[in-house]
Sequence to fold (230 residues):
Amino acid sequence: MYNFTKVNIKNGLFKILVIKYFIKKTAYIATSIFFCRLLIEQQPKKPSSLSDLLLIEQCRQCNRKAQMALYKKYCGGMFIIAQRYLKETDAAEDAMQEAFIKAFQKLSQFKGDVTFGAWLKRIVINTCLDTIKAKKLELQTLNDEVFTVEAPDDDWKISDEATVSEIMCAIEELPDKYKTTVKLFLLEGYDHQEISEILQISENASRTYLHRGKNKLKETLKHLRYGTGY
Fold:
């Protein structure tokens, strides 16, 4: 005779295990949701390694058609990146074009250990930061002995109701020294070693800027959501 009681018990235990599994996964998703929303922005397309290498080799020989082909392939994505740091369209376009000129002049330094898109993006960001510094918006240095990080970088829990637009606007409201670090970390995916090299600050300073920027960002989003400050 078939034992329906045992079947029901097994099904019940299975459901409990499934529920526990999804609860655990939901907590992880809540922590990561901030990253997911920001990463849905359009990113530069991943290059076709073979075609890029052929174009790069031709560019090294000062082939104008190859330079134009490489430019057309990446200019759209690089302009989006430039606009993250320079909101004026003309300034972003100028920085992007200047970055391409620098890239073509420094092609001998491209070793292929990273994708061409990643190598070019670094030049674009550095060019944008140079433009910002030229406008006297230099990042303030931190005393590493005084400032320390109080929380891990992965604690980015925010309200599930916050939109991508609200998040991006909140980032723009951050002080310059925090805003640039948050953008490099969240939008570009750089780690603290890379950020310290780009901004010419220590890794500890990078972590501190990010930690303080994160707290200000979460506070701003909370005000937006509950209407306590905006």
The mean pLDDT is 76. Residues 4-39 form the longest helix (36 residues). The CA atoms of residues 67 and 149 lie 44 Å apart.
